[in-house]
Amino acid sequence: MEQVGELNVLEYKFYLREAFIYNCSMTTEGIEYLNNAKRLETTEPDRERLREKMKGQR
After folding, report:
1. CA-to-CA distance for 31 and 22, rounded, in angstroms?
2. Phi, psi of 44, rounded to the nearest 5 degrees
3. pLDDT recorded at residue 17
4. 16-54 burial string, b = 16+ CB within 10 Å, else e?
5. Which of 3, 4, 8, 34 has the maximum number of C-beta atoms within 10 A of its C-beta?
6. CA-to-CA distance for 14 and 4, rounded, in angstroms?
7. Is the pTM of this model over 0.70?
8. DSSP alpha helices (H): ranges in 1-58?
9. For the residues 1-6, what does the mean pLDDT come to?
């Protein structure tokens, strides 16, 4: 394993992101945070899921 000082910036940011996600996934609040972050980041609707949801309402 490389030392942190030997990592390039992209590798460091990748590992930092993965560690953050891993730590968040350990608690209920963290999982809720991750779900909200994904929802807020999504710009395109999940059309198939919307169709399935609307099928039951007709």
Report:
1. 10
2. -105, 135
3. 96
4. eeeeeeeebeeeeeeeeeeeeeeeeeeeeeeeeeeeeee
5. 34
6. 12
7. no
8. 9-24, 28-41, 47-55
9. 72
